[in-house]
């Protein structure tokens, strides 16, 4: 009896430990998702609502450093960029690092980080005993290495795009470091080549061969998106498929598979993983279309054919919103029609209903004739993307 009681007590302590660890992981992701709402170029109003920082010419006092965070993803400050270039030419390491940070497109990095945390959390929650029995001394360094490999892949894809799109970005995104001159093409190539070499080395040495093949495939299709003569970005359909595959399927499947392998559990398509793979692939397809909304003038000037240049901002924004709304309806119906116990109904049904409501409200605020409003709408598309990863850990 004494032995039996000891075992029961140990089992209860194990369950409590796992619950505490799961709660900590979910809380960490929620905090990360909230912090991710700050996309450079957008400031917070005094009322706590997001508002667009309108591009404007302004001088920077000689005794103050330029606020470069205002010129990363939307607000172009020529004075800040000029001063940053002067600092780089004078050998400032800090200014070079700021340019490198901008080069990696921070809002895409946030999506990669949140996707990695959410996929890891989901895999651990879905695997009984994974949290309490895990060898964290081995798993944590491996998880960090995996995150670094994903960020290197992200940097490779967005970096090579900036190299080949320099002339287009000078019109559409003059705040990007290659377009603005903060980073030379030579420095950009060094960063891209380093990312394209180091990332695969990490994945090859630490993860299963299947993940290495998928990682290499992601780099390949991400590269030909920008590199001539293929340059799939010139075809709206191929461009959408590329971004949807990399950010929708490969990221979410790869992270989940890697964690399952790390804890010694066999991979299986659970309803939650299947759902998020479908949902995020569809969502990433919409991002692939809406990202061209603020770039319509530069794309027209450089004969880049996008849905926005062909159909106009208003129609594309309407179509994108309808597709996202249908995606949320699909999520709600999945929760309603699945067998009892498959999903947690509150986040699966109520959470997606709330996000769908937010989408409708944001769309109603859109003024297609105002570039500031268009950029704000695009920002909100990313905000909802970040929030979905929070729901993924809870469903």
Task: Describe the model.
Helix content is 72%, strand content 2%. It is an all-alpha fold and 395 residues long. Strands 1-2 form a two-stranded antiparallel sheet. A hairpin with a 5-residue loop joins β1 (42-44) and β2 (50-52). The chain is globular, with a radius of gyration of 22 Å. The relative contact order is 0.10.
What average pLDDT do the residues reach? 81
Separation of the first and last Cα atoms: 39 Å
Strand order of the largest sheet: 1-2
The major pleated sheet works out as: 2 strands, antiparallel
Give the tally of β-strands: 2
Please identify the structural class as seen in this structure.
Answer: mainly alpha
Q: What general form does the structure show? A: globular
Helix content percent band = over 70%
- Low-confidence parts, pLDDT < 50 over ≥5 residues? 21-72
Question: In percent terms, what proportion of residues is strand?
Answer: under 5%
Write the element-wise H/E pattern from the N-terminal end onward: HEEHHHHHHHHHHHHHHHH
What is the alpha-carbon Rg in Å? 22 Å
Q: Treating each run of at least 4 consecutive H or I residues as one helix, how many helices?
A: 17
């Amino acid at each position: 009896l004494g032995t039996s009681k000891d075992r029961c007590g140990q089992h209860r302590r194990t369950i409590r430990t796992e619950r505490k660890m799961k709660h900590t992981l979910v809380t960490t992701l929620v905090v990360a998702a909230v912090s991710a709402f700050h996309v450079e170029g957008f400031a917070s109003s005094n009322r706590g609502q997001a508002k667009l920082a309108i591009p404007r010419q302004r001088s920077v006092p000689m005794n103050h450093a330029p606020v470069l965070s205002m010129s990363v993803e939307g607000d172009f400050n020529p004075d800040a960029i000029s001063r940053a270039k002067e600092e780089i030419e004078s050998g400032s390491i800090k200014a070079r690092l700021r340019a490198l940070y901008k080069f990696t497109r921070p809002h895409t990095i946030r999506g990669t980080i949140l996707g990695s945390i959410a996929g890891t959390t989901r895999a651990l929650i879905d695997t009984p005993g994974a949290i309490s029995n895990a060898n964290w001394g081995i798993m944590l360094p491996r998880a960090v290495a995996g995150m670094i490999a994903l960020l290197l892949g992200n940097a490779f894809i967005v970096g090579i795009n900036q190299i080949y799109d320099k002339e287009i970005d000078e019109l559409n995104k003059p705040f990007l470091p290659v377009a603005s001159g903060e980073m030379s093409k030579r420095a950009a190539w060094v960063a891209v080549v380093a990312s394209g070499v180091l990332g695969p080395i990490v994945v090859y040495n630490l993860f299963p061969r299947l993940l290495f093949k998928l990682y290499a495939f992601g780099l390949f299709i991400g590269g030909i998106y920008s590199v001539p003569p293929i340059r799939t970005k010139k075809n709206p359909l191929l461009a959408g498929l590329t971004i949807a595959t990399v950010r929708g399927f490969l990221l979410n499947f790869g992270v989940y598979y890697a964690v399952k392998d790390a804890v010694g559990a066999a991979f299986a398509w659970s309803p939650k993983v299947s759902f998020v793979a479908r949902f995020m692939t569809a969502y990433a397809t919409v991002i692939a279309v809406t990202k061209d909304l603020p770039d319509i003038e530069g794309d027209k000037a450089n004969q880049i054919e996008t849905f926005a240049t062909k159909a106009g901002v208003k129609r594309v924004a309407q179509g994108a919103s309808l597709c996202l709304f249908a995606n949320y309806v699909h999520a709600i119906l999945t929760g309603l029609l699945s067998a009892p116990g498959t999903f947690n109904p509150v986040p699966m049904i109520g959470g997606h209903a709330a996000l769908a409501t937010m989408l409708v409200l944001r769309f109603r605020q859109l003024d297609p004739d105002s570039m500031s409003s268009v950029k704000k709408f695009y920002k909100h598309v990313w905000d909802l993307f970040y929030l979905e990863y929070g729901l993924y850990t809870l469903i």
